[in-house]
TrEMBL record:
<dbReference type="Pfam" id="PF03389">
    <property type="entry name" value="MobA_MobL"/>
</dbReference>
<feature type="compositionally biased region" description="Basic and acidic residues">
    <location>
        <begin position="305"/>
        <end position="325"/>
    </location>
</feature>
<keyword id="KW-0184">Conjugation</keyword>
<keyword id="KW-0614">Plasmid</keyword>
<feature type="region of interest" description="Disordered">
    <location>
        <begin position="272"/>
        <end position="325"/>
    </location>
</feature>
<protein>
    <recommendedName>
        <fullName>MobA/MobL protein domain-containing protein</fullName>
    </recommendedName>
</protein>
<feature type="domain" description="MobA/MobL protein">
    <location>
        <begin position="70"/>
        <end position="238"/>
    </location>
</feature>
<dbReference type="InterPro" id="IPR005053">
    <property type="entry name" value="MobA_MobL"/>
</dbReference>
<feature type="compositionally biased region" description="Pro residues">
    <location>
        <begin position="280"/>
        <end position="295"/>
    </location>
</feature>
């Protein structure tokens, strides 16, 4: 989770800094998408890291790069986070997920340093002990946004080699197995929670901004307008698809789950408690009370058969008896 008061300190610092929050140009919009990468899906963690940090074959786009950072990396990848994702490609199980990819728009009302601090505080909050790497891009037409790669494996502080890090976890002897995976990252409730957390973080940093961003879909809010385009038609299509996925019945169901998981923070408070109440597994739907066992029904009475007249006594013949005449 986010360090104690990290977002509160950030908000206070930016308001008292060189430029006050909210003096930038533009209108705050909401955009956050989450995807997963796996070998089965044809993705490469190392290539994704190079892409967001504009290294390797993507170095030609270095001019778009604003900032890069990482957190919770094991010792062997702390100085070069790219090594973590290269090791994931090499040692993660064939059917395992390599990374979770998150992309979200930064408010243009903040200056560059404020955007960096907001991104760092948010990722620190939602990643807890998960290794992560992120990069801020300028975006076409001054649309700053963040690309983040998040690992499912927790950094528990045990010193493991890259080969051992991606082994199956050993709960009885953690030092003999790999880093344990955080299963909650696979839940839909986690997705809804981090979407809501981002909306609260941005709105907290823009207290004087007239329009607040909302993590819910337009449909869930009763708005017929199409989502705003942030990074071009392709991204708008992705956002529209995500909106439809979390709308209607699913949105109502997930909102109910999130309400049980998350305690809303008071205005001006830190969001460090968000996600802290999430259980290891998504809560199960309440089961209806079992019906009392039914008493076995008595078998219907069988009608009595009429008694047949007794057979007449049979005559016993001796061998010497002749045929009757």
């Amino acid at each position: 989770m986010m360090g104690d008061g990290a977002l509160t300190r950030f908000s206070s610092a930016t308001r008292n800094g060189v430029r006050g929050v909210g003096e930038g140009s533009g209108v705050a919009i909401y955009h956050l998408t989450v995807k997963t990468g796996s070998r089965h899906g044809g993705q490469s963690a190392g290539a994704s890291s190079d892409y967001i940090t504009r290294q390797g074959r993507y170095a030609s786009g270095a001019g778009e790069l604003v900032y890069t950072g990482a957190g919770n990396m094991p010792a062997w990848a702390a100085a070069d986070p790219g090594k973590y994702w290269q090791a994931a490609d090499e040692y993660e199980r064939a059917n395992g997920r390599l990374y979770i990819s998150a992309e979200f728009a930064l408010p243009k009302e903040l200056n560059k340093m404020e955007q960096i601090e907001l991104a760092k505080a948010y990722l620190s909050a939602i990643c807890e002990k998960q290794p992560y790497q992120f990069a801020i891009h300028k975006g076409e037409g001054n649309n700053p946004h963040v690309h983040a790669l998040i690992s499912e494996r927790r950094n528990d502080g045990i010193n493991r080699s890259p080969e051992n890090w991606f082994l199956r976890a050993n709960k009885k002897a953690p030092e003999k197995g790999g880093a344990e995976k955080n299963r909650i990252l696979k839940s839909r409730g986690w997705l809804l929670a981090i979407r809501e957390t981002w909306a609260e973080a941005v709105n907290y940093c823009l207290p004087d901004h007239a329009t607040k961003i909302d993590h819910r879909s337009n449909e869930a809010r009763g708005i017929s307008a199409a989502p705003s385009v942030h990074l071009g038609p392709a991204t708008a299509a992705v956002l529209s698809k995500l909106d439809s996925q979390i709308a209607a019945a699913e949105a109502r169901e997930m909102a109910a789950i999130a309400k049980r998981w998350i305690t809303p923070t008071a205005p001006g408070a830190s969001i460090s408690t968000l996600l802290s109440k999430a259980p290891a597994e998504p809560p199960q739907r309440p089961q209806s009370a079992p019906e009392p066992p039914r008493q076995p029904e008595a078998a219907p009475a069988q009608p009595e058969r009429p008694q047949e007249p007794p057979e007449p006594p049979r005559r016993r013949y001796n061998r010497d008896d002749g045929p009757s005449r």
